[in-house]
């Protein structure tokens, strides 16, 4: 009897844990290079990055999403496998060496996307790739504000890894 109660409780809590892990996240980004776009708005955090390719002297367009009128930081670094938990910040910071800030900006109140599940505000930022040897993996990630759960929380996006060709 005791075992069946434990199994029933586990069965009831397992779907809830899966739903929490898949909750929409306003802090997200889509990355566009000459070969196409990767990433989606409102996707939950995942340490496994999206992947794309870029050539030297090409532009990369970052469509960044988050809460309205909130700041965001776009980071870049040479990719190293893994992610780090930072207390007080949702998601995880992708590991890289060395890390640098590409942009610190605000999401405008005019970029509202009401048809998306997390209803984010979006903004675009373009980075021109300098001369980089082929085969270098560069990782980008956004830190922003997520208000999906009705209280502002600093949150990392899913990272995107760009390999130079």
Compact summary:
With 165 residues, the protein is mainly β.
Structure keywords:
165 residues, mainly beta, S-adenosyl-L-methionine-dependent methyltransferases, globular, disordered N terminus
Task: Explain the overall architecture.
The protein has 165 residues and is mostly beta strands. The chain has a single domain (24-164), classed as S-adenosyl-L-methionine-dependent methyltransferases, CATH 2.20.130.20. 12% of the residues lie in helices and 47% in strands. It has one helix at 2-21, and strands at residues 28-33, 36-38, 50-54, 59-66, 71-84, 93-106, 121-128, 137-146, 153-156, 160-164. Strands 3, 5, 6, 8, 9 and 10 form a 6-stranded mixed sheet that branches. A 4-stranded antiparallel sheet has the order 2-1-4-7, with no helix packed on it. A hairpin with a 2-residue loop joins strand 1 (28-33) and strand 2. It is globular. Residues 1-21 have low confidence and may be disordered.
Strand content: over 45%
Distance between the termini: 61 Å
Low-confidence stretches: 1-21
What is the CATH architecture term?
A: Single Sheet
- Rg, rounded, reads 18 Å
How many individual β-strands? 10
| CATH-derived topology | S-adenosyl-L-methionine-dependent methyltransferases
Largest sheet: 6 strands, mixed
* Class by alpha and beta content: mainly beta
Number of helical elements? 1
Instruction: Give average pLDDT, whole number.
Output: 85
- How does the overall form come out from the CA principal axes? globular
| The first-level CATH class name | Mainly Beta
